[in-house]
């Protein structure tokens, strides 16, 4: 047993871990909270639009070019960012896990979820190609309440893995608003409008930015961020999220 | 291993370890080396399991290793003492000793208790190096000593003794659990000399100093009674509470608040946590944002709580309950750090395991049992009632009102469960049931929630700014007075404290089994069946113990060991009984009536005393009767006419008046038949001519000579009870035309030289003489000259100080003798 496994063995003796999802026993060698079986069963997005990252669940029965450009997003709304990628589908166990992470203060899930993102990172999408990695900020008031920014925790692990600098507290929220999660599509867009500001635009000048968030629903939040960043002088903004809802109608 | 040790590995290991300790209690093999071999084999097995990666072998090996470890640890801590241990290097007597104080002196009104690590002892002119801890009582209240001081003292050392009766508190084992096997007394502080300071822990010194400063700060700001209460609640100085307040707390079932327990540590831990979290949340925006990227502020606050909590535990003294709570909170914090769902059973097992490895004998200690049983049931109750909510992640977060509801429900559940779980053990050990304990706890604990953090904060603040601290403490006074008046109001309710006969061990086990079932009534059919059947079993068992089926043809006389003093219990054929005298100390400092006589009667499952006889109103016969009369239903009190007017006697009379117990004056010539075939004839004092009692020394003697003397006869066997009569009364008795000859003589006046004259002994011609005397350090009795007179006549001598409680059991023709020696009944 290595030193780490040794510590984790004793830790497990004191606080035997139970999988957060299936309540099954966890391996005595890892300090995880989810068993490897449940990790493997989290819903992944395999086929998606190359631009907006929209998942195509209908193509899961293998035929033809799996991922392609869906072509209809441009007409609908302006997205500002160049590309977006999400790793999992916001449903089932992944949804449960994200809620535990965000609302039940299981902050150590952050690095584990980020690890899962890295493991399933699309081949054509390399976070190492960006100048900065930037998490979507929380309003300071909400941050004080929740005690952590879930996007920041994800971004931190990803930035460390790809050895890119993390940019925090440059982008910030102006208003303390209603949480997006409780709103409908149109309201989201109105709610988020003008919500973000940049503190030091010169740091963004001609830089490529990777925005990181936990859930992509309509793209309103990341879209607004991207808009603000581009206006501040960023050259290119792309989006990576942990999960994405399927086809908001 | 996954499957065997499974969900709660430490519970599994704890059970193995407990089994080892219990095994150690039941037998103690003479050979230590063989045990080493067994233990080594067990550990090897465990190691082999590790190497072979065979989970079953590993689990079995671990369990066996812990079983052996528990056994060894228990044996070592109870039986093994190094050759230079103080208890193996002295005979009772006066010695010069040198040693170091292991804790600050404990102050009592008229004495001070020191715990000293002995370094050297002087015997026969030369010093010898010894080890071990002793407890020294200094009969002086002002001592300029503190923790870590080295002293040289002239002390009278002895091995602590127990009162040798069934049911008496095992004082010797109690001290041994603290590592004390020798006690000593120092008559005055001129016999103590301070030496050059020795090694001491500066952390502990600092903490004791802090306790002293906080305590004097509280005394400065508050009236004495309130300060005492606050010091007990916050600093764990439970001796600071005045006895009236303490009595009220005991009566309403809140005594646990006065001794620092897990509850207090929990409050303080939470207070520190909340403080740190608040401070972190007040950080400026940018800093806070940076911090959240590094660690969750809640976790950081939890980590910061750790040293504060350990400091507090050291401050209040590491008792079982506080150590248990601290370990549990630390494990809880650890689980918080790794975001694990904590299993409280496992955490509880961890703290039990640590405490029992540290002190294996604490398994038999009251505080350990109370603490762990209570917390186990709290955890169990939560497991049953809150399981569904905690296992399934809540998708909708509860609102503020709902959260308050959950919190309130939890609070009520904890209070009721803790009271239910603690009650049988409290009755078992303290023979007292508080009918209001649930109500009192529900009302008092929220107050304590405020008082403790506020008191501690004020104390810590006073170190920085006295004025601010004083202000906060003055605010706290409101809550303290509220608590005091609440307890005072509840204490006068008649059902607050009930004296009930304690359950036996079987009944305790039945009750806890029943409690386990009751919580699951709605979940499982087996629990319903179990609850009903256990309730029936417990009820029947308790009813049977209240109505014992005894051999009704026997007369049984037990002479109790009450130290210096006298008390005898007579159980007549047919079930009636009589208590003659109740022992007692001169200053009422230790309540023999409660802890020795009542405890004996309870252990014999006595509920009612048909007759209580007071031979004469001296404290060593009278003082213990006060608690007995308070604790039991009494049919009638007999005494000789007396003009005694001591406060103690007047208090006794007032008590009899209040309980409306009839008093019968008896004297020579009175004749009673308390049971079929049993005759009780009173021989002394003569009812006529009551003497003048104005002169002090003569008064003492006269009162002794006016002791009630009676002869108890059951067919051919007879007993002579003589109280404290001396020569004068013996001469009087010899002149009377009565039969003195008896099988058993209760020797007069604790074997003093002025009693048991040769003509008297010749007239009584006893086969057995029974001496009720304390160990030699307590009094000047008995006299060797007097023993010589018994030896001359070939009378067998039995002494309560050597043989413990002595029981003579007779069917009227033969008699059988049993003694209570070293906690065991020896029949011969």
Write the layout of secondary structure elements.
The complex is a heterodimer of chains A (249) and B (828).
Chain A: H1 3-14, H2 36-40, H3 73-76, E1 84-89, H4 92-103, H5 109-119, E2 132-135, H6 140-146, H7 150-162, E3 171-173, H8 185-192, E4 196-198, E5 208-216, H9 220-231, E6 236-244
Helix pairs in contact in A: 5-7
Chain B: H1 2-5, H2 9-26, H3 32-52, H4 55-79, E1 93-101, E2 106-107, E3 112-123, E4 126-129, E5 133-138, E6 150-158, H5 171-177, E7 180-186, E8 192-194, H6 202-221, H7 224-235, H8 243-251, H9 255-258, H10 262-281, H11 285-294, H12 297-316, H13 320-337, H14 344-358, H15 366-385, H16 387-391, H17 400-430, E9 433-434, H18 437-464, H19 466-491, E10 497-498, H20 505-518, H21 525-546, E11 555-559, E12 568-571, E13 577-580, H22 592-603, E14 608-614, H23 619-631, E15 633-639, H24 647-658, E16 663-665, E17 671-675, E18 678-684, H25 696-705, E19 709-714, E20 717-721, H26 727-735, E21 744-746, H27 758-764, E22 768-771, H28 784-793, E23 796-799, H29 800-803, E24 806-810, E25 815-821, E26 824-827
Parallel strand pairs in B: 5-7, 13-14, 14-15, 15-16, 20-21, 21-22, 22-23
Antiparallel strand pairs in B: 1-3, 1-6, 2-3, 3-4, 3-5, 6-7, 6-8, 9-10, 11-12, 11-24, 12-13, 17-18, 18-19, 19-20, 24-25, 25-26
Which blocks of ≥5 consecutive residues of chain A have pLDDT under 50? Answer: none
Distance between the termini of chain A: 52 Å
Largest interface: A-B, 36 and 36 residues
Count of helical stretches of chain B: 29
Q: Radius of gyration of chain B in whole Å, from Cα?
A: 31 Å
Main beta sheet of chain B: 9 strands, mixed
What Rg of chain A do the Cα atoms give?
19 Å
Q: Could you name the CATH class of the largest domain in chain A? A: Alpha Beta
Overall mean confidence score, pLDDT of chain B? 85
Which shape of chain B, going by the Cα principal axes? globular
Mean pLDDT of chain A: 82
CATH topology of the largest domain in chain A: Rossmann fold
| Low-pLDDT segments, ≥5 res of chain B | 389-395
Helix and strand content put the structural class of chain A at alpha/beta
Q: Report the helical percentage of chain B.
A: 40-55%
Instruction: Provide the β-strand percentage band of chain B.
Output: 15-25%
How many domains, in number, for the residues of chain A?
A: 2
Number of strands of chain A: 6
**Strand proportion of chain A:** 5-15%
């Amino acid at each position: 047993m290595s030193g780490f496994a040794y510590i984790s063995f004793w830790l497990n003796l004191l606080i035997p871990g139970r999988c957060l999802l299936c309540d099954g026993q966890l391996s005595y060698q890892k300090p995880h909270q989810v068993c490897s079986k449940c990790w493997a069963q989290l819903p992944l997005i395999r086929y998606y639009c190359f631009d907006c990252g929209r998942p195509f669940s209908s193509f899961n029965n293998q035929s033809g070019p799996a991922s392609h450009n869906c072509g209809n997003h441009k007409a609908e709304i302006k997205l500002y960012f160049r590309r977006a990628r999400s790793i999992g589908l916001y449903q089932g166990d992944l949804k449960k896990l994200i809620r535990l992470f965000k609302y039940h203060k299981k902050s150590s899930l952050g690095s584990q979820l980020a690890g899962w993102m890295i493991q399933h990172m699309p081949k054509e999408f390399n976070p190492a190609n960006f100048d900065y990695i930037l998490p979507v900020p929380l309003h300071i008031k909400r941050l004080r309440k929740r005690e952590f920014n879930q996007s920041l925790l994800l971004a931190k692990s990803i930035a460390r893995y790809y050895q890119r600098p993390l940019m925090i507290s440059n982008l910030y929220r102006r208003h303390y608003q209603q949480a997006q999660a409780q709103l409908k599509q149109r309201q989201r867009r109105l709610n988020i409008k003008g919500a973000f500001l940049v503190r030091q635009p010169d740091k963004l000048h001609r830089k490529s930015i990777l925005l990181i968030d936990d859930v992509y629903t309509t793209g309103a939040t990341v879209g607004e961020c991207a808009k603000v960043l581009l206006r501040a002088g960023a050259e290119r903004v792309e989006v990576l999220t942990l999960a994405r809802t399927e086809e908001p109608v | 291993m996954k499957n065997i040790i499974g969900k709660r590995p430490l519970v599994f290991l704890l059970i193995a370890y407990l089994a080892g300790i219990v095994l150690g209690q039941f037998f103690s093999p003479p050979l230590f080396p063989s045990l080493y071999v067994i233990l080594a084999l067990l550990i090897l097995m465990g190691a082999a399991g590790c190497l072979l990666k065979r989970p079953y072998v590993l689990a079995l090996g671990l369990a066996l290793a812990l079983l052996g470890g528990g056994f060894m640890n228990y044996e070592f801590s109870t039986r093994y003492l190094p050759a230079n241990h103080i208890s193996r290097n002295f005979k009772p007597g006066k010695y010069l000793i040198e040693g170091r104080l292991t804790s600050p002196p404990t102050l009592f009104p008229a004495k001070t208790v020191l715990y000293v690590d002995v370094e050297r002892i002087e015997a026969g002119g030369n010093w010898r190096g010894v080890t071990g801890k002793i407890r020294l009582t200094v009969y002086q209240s002002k001592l300029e000593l503190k923790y870590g001081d080295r002293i040289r003292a002239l002390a009278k050392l002895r091995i602590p003794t127990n009162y040798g009766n069934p049911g008496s508190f095992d004082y010797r084992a109690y001290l041994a659990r603290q590592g004390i096997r020798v006690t000593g007394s120092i008559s005055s502080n001129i016999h103590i000399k301070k030496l050059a300071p020795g090694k001491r822990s500066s952390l502990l010194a600092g903490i004791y100093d802090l306790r002293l400063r906080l305590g004097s700060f509280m005394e400065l700001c508050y009236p004495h009674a309130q300060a005492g209460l606050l010091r007990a609640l916050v600093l764990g100085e439970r001796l600071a509470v005045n006895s009236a307040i303490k009595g009220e707390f005991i009566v309403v079932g809140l005594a646990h608040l006065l001794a620092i327990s897990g509850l207090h540590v929990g409050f303080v831990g939470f207070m520190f946590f909340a403080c740190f979290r608040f401070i972190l949340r007040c950080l400026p925006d940018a800093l806070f944002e940076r911090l959240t990227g590094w660690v969750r502020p809640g976790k950081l606050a939890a980590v910061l709580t750790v040293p504060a909590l350990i400091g507090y535990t050291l401050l209040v003294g590491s008792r079982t309950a506080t150590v248990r709570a601290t370990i549990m909170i630390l494990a809880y914090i650890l689980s918080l750090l790794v975001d694990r769902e904590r299993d409280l059973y496992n955490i509880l097992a961890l703290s039990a395991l640590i405490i029992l490895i540290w002190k294996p004998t604490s398994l038999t200690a009251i505080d350990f049992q109370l603490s762990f049983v209570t917390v186990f049931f709290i955890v169990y109750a939560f497991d049953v009632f809150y399981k569904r909510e905690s296992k399934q992640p809540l998708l909708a977060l509860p609102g503020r009102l709902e959260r308050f509801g959950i919190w309130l429900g939890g609070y009520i559940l904890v209070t009721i469960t803790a009271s239910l779980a603690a009650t049988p053990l409290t009755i078992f050990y303290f023979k007292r049931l508080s009918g209001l304990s649930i109500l009192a706890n529900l009302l008092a604990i929220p107050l304590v929630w405020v008082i403790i953090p506020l008191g501690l904060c004020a104390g810590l603040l006073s170190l920085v700014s006295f004025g601010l601290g004083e202000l906060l403490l003055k605010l706290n006074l409101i809550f303290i007075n509220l608590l005091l008046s609440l307890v005072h109001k509840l204490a006068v309710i008649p059902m607050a404290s009930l004296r009930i006969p304690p359950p036996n061990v079987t009944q305790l086990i039945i009750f806890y089994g029943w409690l386990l079932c009751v919580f699951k009534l709605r979940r499982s059919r087996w629990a319903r069946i179990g609850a009903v059947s256990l309730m029936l079993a417990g009820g029947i068992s308790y009813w049977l113990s209240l109505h014992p089926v005894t051999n009704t043809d026997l007369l049984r006389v037990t002479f109790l060991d009450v130290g210096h003093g006298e008390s005898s219990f007579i159980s007549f054929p047919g079930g009636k009984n009589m208590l003659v005298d109740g022992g007692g100390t001169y200053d009422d400092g230790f309540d023999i009536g409660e802890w020795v006589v009542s405890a004996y009667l309870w252990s014999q499952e006595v509920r009612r005393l048909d007759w209580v006889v007071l031979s004469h109103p001296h404290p060593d016969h009278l003082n213990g009767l006060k608690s007995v009369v308070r604790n039991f239903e009494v049919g009638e009190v007999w005494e000789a006419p007396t003009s005694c007017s001591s406060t103690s006697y007047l208090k006794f009379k007032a008590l009899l008046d209040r309980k409306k117990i009839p008093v019968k004056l008896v004297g020579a010539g009175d004749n009673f038949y308390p049971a079929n075939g049993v005759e009780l004839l009173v021989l002394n004092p003569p009812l006529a001519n009551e003497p003048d009692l104005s002169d002090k020394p003569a008064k003492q003697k006269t009162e002794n000579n006016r002791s009630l003397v009676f002869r108890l006869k059951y067919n051919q066997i007879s007993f002579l009870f003589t109280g404290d009569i001396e020569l004068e009364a013996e001469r009087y008795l010899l002149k009377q035309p009565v039969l003195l000859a008896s099988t058993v003589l209760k020797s007069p006046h604790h074997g003093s030289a002025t009693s048991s004259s040769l003509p008297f002994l010749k007239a009584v011609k006893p086969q057995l003489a029974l001496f009720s005397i304390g160990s030699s350090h307590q009094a000047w009795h008995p006299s060797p000259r007097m023993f010589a007179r018994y030896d001359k006549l070939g009378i067998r001598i039995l002494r309560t100080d050597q043989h413990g409680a002595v029981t003579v059991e007779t069917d009227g023709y033969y008699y059988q003798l049993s003694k209570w020696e070293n906690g065991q009944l020896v029949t011969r």
